[in-house]
Design a protein that fits this description.
This protein is mostly helical and 397 residues long. A hairpin with a 2-residue loop joins strand 1 and strand 2. It is globular and about 60 Å long.
């Protein structure tokens, strides 16, 4: 993977590690895909999309499509890729002088800070904070062999799913219907002055500080360890076997069907339970997406090039999505939250995805790294980093 390529810089020829095109394309797919779920939450706080009292057919069809192909798939893919990044960093730093764990912990500490800033000042639905915590957990197991890695991965994924299932059954969330007093109250909070939104986001984020260590942190750590194992088995170079793909497909269809039935159920317990089932169904579908990207790209820089460019700027574009989404749905056009249906949200996500592809292509004509990718590496490094240097593909995840 770490093939050496020559780059001409003035009168000097330097050897730089080539990027892994497969990983860049997968990360690009993940950062674009995650918007199609996050977009519901930018303007409506923690409620997400509020259904009509009488749900239109186009909303139901869009929801079913999301249950099978979008919901949870790309956040799972991101977590797996983060584990790949940890594995690559560990392998690279272990061959150099110095403490590999110290350098990696420095990166995670800064990511933790980025997550706090993002979660409080921009959008509470931040995932960076969870990734940093999960990364600290995953660091403890990087030396394990693949057999032990998968055991830890399964355990870390199963525990939060079990806890969330119990919560769903004994404390189900009542659905919020569009136009009700509770819905209007929530809208008024997120369309108020920024100072009021900031206070609400701070309160929510503090609450998440207590919940995350018992739920999503372990889920993220489990998926990261899965990513480490898959990377070391060469899956990001060759993909999965046909037999494995059949198992993934059947698992996805079965779990997504159960999820959809629960989502459509009138019983609040079943509707709440679907949020747990969708997290389980997301993993095999994420692995299918991973396989498709690997087989299509074949580690060629000219194949899936738009996705690769987006993948190289994943951190910066993820934050840009939050900034633009919050500005649009809370400040520029807050009434959209009360008027848009699911297909219209999808159209906005498609439009902004095209914008991100174009932006990445233009930006990378002039720079080799995204602004936040460069800042993160600069802060975490003990010595100044040349902003023009090329980074290893997965270390920017």
């Amino acid at each position: 993977m770490e093939l050496q390529q020559q780059s001409l810089q003035g009168n000097k020829i330097s050897l730089e590690p080539a990027r892994n095109a497969n990983i860049d394309s997968i990360r690009g797919l993940a950062v674009l895909g995650i918007l199609f779920i996050n977009i519901y939450f930018f303007g409506n706080g923690y409620l997400g999309y509020a259904d009509h009292e009488s749900v239109p057919l186009h909303d139901t069809l869009t929801m079913l499509f999301s249950n099978f192909f979008l919901e949870g798939r790309f956040i799972s893919l991101f977590s797996i890729l983060f584990g790949v990044g940890l594995a690559i960093q560990y392998d690279k730093l272990s061959t150099q002088a110095g403490d590999a764990y110290k350098a990696m912990k420095s990166r995670l500490k800064w990511l933790l800070l980025f997550g706090v800033i993002h979660g409080i000042f921009i959008w509470y639905g931040d995932i960076l904070f969870t990734y940093a915590l999960g990364g600290f957990v995953a660091l403890c197991y990087l030396k394990l062999d693949n057999r032990k890695l998968i055991k830890k991965s399964v355990m870390f994924i199963t525990i939060p799913l079990f806890l969330m299932t119990i919560i769903s059954l004994f404390a189900p969330e009542e659905p919020i219907i569009r136009g009700t007093a509770l819905f209007e109250e929530d809208i008024s909070i997120w369309s108020a002055a920024y100072s009021e939104q900031l206070m609400m986001q701070f309160i929510i984020f503090v609450g998440l500080l207590f919940i995350t260590p018992f739920t999503t942190m372990w889920m993220a750590a489990g998926l990261m360890l899965l990513g480490v194992m898959l990377y070391r088995k060469g899956v990001f170079e060759k993909g999965f076997s046909q037999k494995q793909l059949v198992v993934f497909a059947l698992s996805t269809i079965l779990l997504s069907t159960v999820d959809s039935l629960c989502s459509l159920a009138a019983d609040p317990k079943l509707a709440s339970l679907s949020m747990t089932i969708v997290m389980a169904s997301a993993i095999p579908m994420a692995l299918i997406y991973l396989h498709l990207a690997v087989k299509l790209c074949q580690n060629r820089a000219n194949v899936l090039a738009p996705l690769q460019k987006v993948g190289r700027l994943a951190f910066s574009l993820y934050i840009l999505q939050s900034v633009c989404g919050v500005l649009l749905f809370r400040h520029f056009a807050p009434t959209l939250t009360s008027t848009l249906d699911r297909p219209e949200y999808m159209l906005i996500a498609i439009g902004f995805s095209i914008f991100q592809v174009m932006l990445a292509s233009i930006y990378l004509k002039y720079f080799n790294q995204g602004p936040l990718e460069w800042l993160w590496r600069r802060l975490a490094s003990q010595k100044p980093i040349n902003p023009e240097s090329t980074s290893i593909a997965a270390t920017d995840s």
